[in-house]
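Sanity check record (used in CI):
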Amino acid sequence: MATAVSTQPTESVTHEEEDAPQIVLLDPAQVVRDEQNARETDTEPDEELIASVREIGVEETISVRPRPDGTYGAFKGWRRAQAQKIANDTAGQDGRPVRKIKAHVREDLVGRDGWTRFLSLVENKHREGMSERDILKSQELSLIDMSDVERRQATRALGVSRNAAKHAKTAQKLDDATLRRATAGGMDLEQTAQLAEVEHVRGAERRLLRALGRDHEEGNGGRGHWDQEMALLKAEQADDDARAKAQEDLKKANIPLLGQPSWGQKDTSKPLAELTTGLGNPLTEDNHKNCPGRSARLDDEHRPVWHCSDPAAHGHKVRPQPKKPRTEQDEQRAEERRKVIACNRAWKAAAGPRQDFVARLVRQKTLPDAARVFAQEIVLTVPYFYSSWADKRESETVARFLGIKEPEHADLAEAAVQLPKARVVNALFAHVAAACEYDIREPKTWSNLTVRQARYLLLLEALGQDDSGSYRLSEVEDEAVARNRPDTAA
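Expected output for ParB-like chromosome segregation protein Spo0J:
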């Protein structure tokens, strides 16, 4: 049979076109599996289906498209077509009729692989047995191989974002068991992809499922808990990556990285700060470079602390100093240090979700009144933090909030000319928010938050709650603003 030659559509396909394909009776021997069939696992008919088809044939119409060799590619109903072929093979000896199958012949899909796979996905996704991996792979491949018009229509039908193909590709990095748990836990496509980005951080899956559960419990459709947990996981991953890089740098320089001694083993190493040369001169990184005991440990910020692995064997002396027993106060200081490091990291991580929320506010058609009033007050009163930030002429953050492409190269003067009147107040808030963000940029800001800084965070918290819980403060931000919260008990 001659095949139809088709081109990519330039406008949306109407329901009338798709609801009225040609229906014909086909010999199942003419039907093969279409390359764009979304189901790639469990593609064979089971015995129950074969037994049913032997008795009554295939009741539901399958969907096919013509192939150049005269056969038809089944993108819907391939297992039914196989079952009928198997039944026909033994029909003569069993005294049963040889049956044909009803098929929608979709000549309009010739050359439209992306849309064909999408239609197959819609068909198979809701049938029992299609794996999460097959669903993800089909979402990715179908959306990539589509025109812009088809892609917009398909993403609306699937209920996914414009970046669904990218998310589907990323999510496929997860193993099958993790994919099943993510789906069962209620993760959408974007969230499953985000899990794949941080899956190697310890406890990532458990923490994200817990955050998602808290968002669901609130019942307002927001994802504030998820966003904050994801920001923390990304920060931890960046920290892990920084440590791995520091370790790799030492390895490339042929400098041994000292580990912790096993139980009962004496640690002979000493940091250079505690050692001198044989003549009593200080040991430094430079004058210790040629020592066979040259080695290092990494501190909490992944910087090398230079050691000698065996000072006695290499002719070094230990600086004379009385050894003080470790006290409870020392333990408290160590615990405080660990908390400072964790809070500093959490504060830096919290900037991501917070600034994303500010950008969403700025790009809304109408800025919330509370944000407008806050911006107007700052501009009219010109507090010192705002005027000093304005003097720096920092524009990248403002441009990012406004959604300008390549914000690092943005010309705000040009942006001002193009800004519609209705968006002026949004730009004003972007400007003020950029100054506020600069004011709280330091990792240790959490430890001594001012009333003014707390007011900005509390404003964003209130706006996030009003926006169906789309944003909430992180744990470290929540602790930092606690003493500045309004007293609701009065």
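The chain is about 50% helix and 10% strand. If this sentence no longer matches the regenerated tokens, the check is flagged for review.
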